[in-house]
Structures
1.
Amino acid sequence: MAKVAIRFLLNGSEKAEFVESGTTLLDVLREKLADFSPKGGCLQGTCGACSVLVDGEIRLACLTLAETCEGCTIETAGGLAKDGVLHPLQIAFADGFATQCGFCTGGMIVASKALLDRNPAPSREDVIEAISGNVCRCTGYEPIIGAVLAAARANSTNKA
Amino acid sequence: MELRKTYFADERRDDLKEIGQSRPRSDAFGHVTARTAFFADRTFPGTLHLKMVRSPHHHARIRAIDTSEAERHPGVVRVLTAKDVPHNLYTVLSLIQVGPEDEHVLAEEKVRWKGEAVVAVLAETPRAAFEGVAKVRIDYEPLPAVLDMEAALAPGAPLVNERHGGNYYHYDSGSSRKVRLGDVEDGFRQADHILEQTYASAPIEHAPTETTGCIVVPEGNERFTCYTNTQAMFFTLDNASIILQMPGHKLHMVGGTVGGGFGGKVDVIVEPIAILGSKLTGRPVSFIYGREEEMQISSPRAAERIVLKDGVTRDGRIVARQVHCYVDAGAYSRHSPYGTQKGAAHFPGPYTIPNVSIDSFCVYTNRTPSSAMRGFGVTIGDFALEVQMDKLARLIGMDPIEFRLINAYRDGDLKAHRQPTEGAALIECMQEASRVTNWPIADRFFELSSRTRRD
């Protein structure tokens, strides 16, 4: 099968790979670039565990063809902490007991970051809508919603 | 959070300081940075992908299997059938004397549920493995199936699993796990009211976000490392060792964080066949359920049907409780004989009843094998028992909490299975629940104690 060259920025560093046409972004991230932070929970776009940001927009890596990401900026949960400093969402999730098994957590935090990036002061309903594509089967939705709202409050306090 | 220190004050140690304190989870940092390693978060060059050919029938005889076209398919490396499995028969709990072995790793002669594994295809890519699966030809002779427990127990029902000789598990107590205390018929004669009700539940799937799977890596010297998300590491090691007829020291099982289990990852289904595939090809092998397999193939919580017959007096004492519990194991035992037995011990619930008769049946049907899930064997029983308690209270016009307080077990009471009650706190829990919810119960019920012997 034909291979195509792709280049993109992954969590701030340049990546270039030859991939078979039709390869998903999830497979490229996990199998070629060893970024295991997006998870494959369903491989059919229903669980949200593979959520990543492509040019700031939330995307399901399992349904995104890698070749459509040429020249894009990609952010994953694994790249959110900078120089060992946690993102306010990461602090809020840890402090608020918003993790259980941890499998959905990366995708949840990415979906929440997409929300806070465009809406720094979301309502509870905004948060529910933002994570509505992410399944937590340990059913810790309430602490997750609380953590996102806490992170938004922490952000606004820091800026004030 | 408020700690009520008045309860069991003489037994309380006051140097315990953790309750009421918030402590960070030990795994929170790994989770929020998405660095926690799950079994699939690793890659090995040359890994083969295993996909399963599954039965499209609930019950059928296998006339012939033709794998020749699949074996020739580009990318397919190896195709496995029953004859490749050294000891192709197992029961997860055989090591704790729950037998007989009743399930094939890959089906032989017959399939007994829709989804049963028949042929394993190992290929260079998932796509080639799926294509290989589509090219396996199996000639089936469909057989009559039983999909309902009553039908399975009816005279003349098709036999689901020949290894049990009947459509129920044989306990040493016979066709059911039996518990007897007092004389239940005498108890019914003493009762002012008798209430018989049937409660039923459907199978429930755990649906973990991370699907069941493992990755096996050959380490040379006939030794294998198996990265798995099993919840039952030692069942997995022991059963893989028996199925593969390999000593345990050849099998290095590596567990870790499980992406949601809820009891759904204790059945030892993926590891033995993946290790065999790795042994026969000399390559790493990945066998990970797709979402559809997780939902349709992995064992659910068993469907149950529970018939409760209670005799109660006008003043609120339950004097007799008869239980007939039917647990749908599906086509194979897995953990269901154990769950059914656990249920038998758990009935009559946390109540002291002088006359009890319990029969719990583990029933075989041509449905997906059921197994462990969060309190399996007792959870559905508790639903039935507590709904029944509310109905009994209504029947005699009594407050449901007062009714439960009258019947609650106390220290020293003999349970139906002959164990004396120790450390009971049900009365105190209900007293406190009544207090904090302002549920009106008569003052005399606040005088009761789990430590005071019943009159």
2.
Amino acid sequence: MTEQRFSPLRLLVAAIRPIDPILFGLLAVLLGYAFGLMHSASPERIASLLVNSGVAVAAMWLAARLSPQRLLSLALPLYAGGVLLLVAVDLFGETSKGATRWLDIGITRIQPSEIMKIAMPLMLAWYFQQREGHIRLREFVVAGALLAVPVALILIQPDLGTSLLVAAAGFYVIFFAGLSWKLIVPVALVSIVGIGAIVGFGDQLCQPGVDWQVLREYQKHRVCTLLDPTQDPLGRGFHIIQSTIAIGSGGVLGKGWTEGTQTHLAFLPERHTDFIFSVLAEEFGLLGALVLLASYLLLLLRGFVIAAQAPSLATRLLAGSITMIFFTYAFVNMGMVSGILPVVGVPLPFISYGGTALVTLCLGVGILMSIQRSRVLARG
Amino acid sequence: MTEFRTPDEELGRFRRRVLVAGIVALVCFGLLAARFYYLQVVRHEYFHTRAEDNRIGLVPIVPTRGAILDRNGVTLARNFAAYTLEITPSQVADLDETIDALSEIVTIDARDRRRFRKLLEESRNFESVPIRTRLDDAEVARFVARRYRFPGVEVQARLFRDYPHGEVASHVIGYIGRINLRDQERIEERGDTANYRGSDHIGKSGLELSYEAELHGVTGVEQVEVNAGGRAVRVISRTPATTGSDLELTLDIELQKVAEAAFGGRRGALVAIDPRTGGVLALASKPTFDPNLFVDGISTADWNELNDSPDHPLLNRAIFSAYPPGSTFKPFMALAALTTGKRTANQAIADPGYFSFAGRRFMDDKVGGHGMVDLHESIVVSCNTYYYQLANDLGIEGIAGFMAPLGFGSRTGIDIPGEAEGVLPSPAWKRGRFKKPEQQRWYGGETISVGIGQGYNAYTPLQLANALATIVNGGKVFRPHVVRHVIDTASGERRAVQPEPIRQLAIKPAHLAAVRDAMVDVNKSGTGARAFAGAPYSAGGKTGTAQVYSLKGSKYVAGRVRERLRDHSWFIAYAPAENPTIALAVLVENGGFGAQSAAPIARQVIDYHLLGARLEAPADEDAGAADAEADSHAGHDEEATP
């Protein structure tokens, strides 16, 4: 770098250089949805949403400024620290809603499982990079172990939703690293058969007193409610029934901004967090929902393009995995709100209220930008 | 698996996988789009109607909480209806302004405001939060006339919990309080959320907590038509709530009152059990507290007073505090001697006034000793030397092995929450208790202290009462219980809480009889004789003194020791001797010698139980002082022990 004279314009250019305009534009659309919906669902939270998005965009910008190599050098400490914190949570964590997820570090409470959502793909990408050219069965076994430890620690908190997301994040790296289809296909088949069995024999399995062994009681309730929400209209089925009514009654064009009766008569539960999509579908209709789907699809497309053109193995794996994480969040959340997946407590990415998740997701966008920029630099 | 590939091949495969992932994502999003199309276009009419119907809301009907009655049907916990003034925060623009305006109509003091703030933090925005409870009719009328000025403020008729006996038996009955976030989480964990939709109180301690499921009842549902503002205009259908079950206790509230009054201002605990069933007749812990303070949310001042008091009124000493049993342990030790065959009833030892062990002298209270002492005499005069020797012969494993089945050192399983385990010392216990190897070692001298109920062992008054009940009922160990019947208020069906013998101990009736005979003579001619003088029935008993503070090398003189360091006074008793219907344990904290303060309390309780009469004269605290100086003083004779 040559010595440059101070100039506000140049400073601005330097500041926005790491920002990928396409990703940022899509993020702006999604955050626009967030503000619009929050104004309708829970106007008193607009101010703190503003703070959260400010922090999240700053996190994105910081991640985008760093080179992918710098980011990957953080993989091992982040991963090891995350695992240690998860062990600490299981030993000394604070229990809330029947699960021990929080760790009180004096100034604030942290949720180490959130760290893992970024640390896991970073770690595995870094690991495969180290073994590049020698990736055989042994490497996949090691990667599987690196994946299994934190997932198990989160699962026993118990937090099924987050453990599935972290497991998915890690699995995507392994998948992109070239895990044989011979291993992927049987697992997928078993899952499909398992889900089919639950749906087919749901009535018998959901009788009270039937112990599901691997799943906790509340998780069983979630699955059973999905199968037949009308069983318990005041209790567990309430959320799904009310949110499908909200979506369905929205029609093609919706009831209009802040005009949703479901939202405003307080029938919709958790309407600013996990169920915010129902507010969107009620007030903006099918059109609003499809525009959202399209925005997510474009985000995924951009992510895949960045992944396909990334300059190294690690950055490829990382970009592919982060993109798939965005997909998983969006699909699982909209699937559960519209009643085709069980309620597992996954937020709608970039839109649901919740600071930690927003910062994590924007860090992901920042990493994609960093990878995109490194390709540009590598070429030019 | 993977073969050697060129980087280009690697990249090609990666890109193919990205393509696969993209296709999966596209298919899934297509699925979502199809689902949206189905809900929003195909079934739009249906859901549109449902949303309109949703103006028909489901309103929970909170069930009435079950009552708690004593064994004679006297009400111990009940409900009464009262009006509350409630604010729905989300419908109010400026809370402070609204509350200020309200305070011009109804009395709202600083305490109400503080409680409101606290409840506000714990509640969700759209739930109504009470600012004032128990409005009188004039206040209701004044507010209703000005209601138009207060959108989001409403008068509600609610049921309140009332404990008519106030402080009496509050540790047994417990109390309810507003559901806080922690309770909410427990409810969610139990999968009970639907049943608590609309409930705002939950059992927090005592029977109110342990029988929460029975007392709460089943929430009903009312379908109401709501107008655009969300206010109910017409009831469409109604599934009534099921009132919670009533609890009928084995406890006799009058006996409980006698027991609590007998303590006067002293701290301590009493547990009286029917040895035939394990039913608890009285369970007192002094000092006590007024559970009514907790129902609407306790004020900070009241809470601090209860919580910071050096007397710890919130502590249930009867089931949670463990004290060394002192000489009340001797009848159980005697039974161990007979059962294991280490002693026969007639075998006598010579008591020189001390027992030598490893070069140390463990002292008896009586200077010069009791002379020739057999098992019967050892209990009647509370001879330490007999038990020093016995403990040495039994060994610590032998003692622990015999005492454990009697329930010492384990929870009895009583149906009120918060029971402590106590400590039944053994080498294994000591290894688990201490960290340093030198502390983990069990010393022979420690066994000898355990023999007279001092040293490490510590039991709750409940454990001692229940173990005594086992001795007097022929060896049946019951799970003690306070509730006798759970009464379904709808059907009137009475579900009996069955006496539950956990186990029958293999102890010979002759051995039990030998120990019981000695305990009867304790009250006739021994350490309990003074307290039971003139009783028209025959009762068995045993005094005990639990050492609080070790006065090394100096003589214990009650008057010279600060009150908090004085010994705890124990008395265990049962009556009538022929066919016992009550077995009890009394502990008076810092009460000094057992015969002095604990035995008169036992006498009053047994008198009331058997004769239905109260002793009019209150226990004279100084009555036994002279005896105490001269008589047994178990705790302070181990001058040579480390």
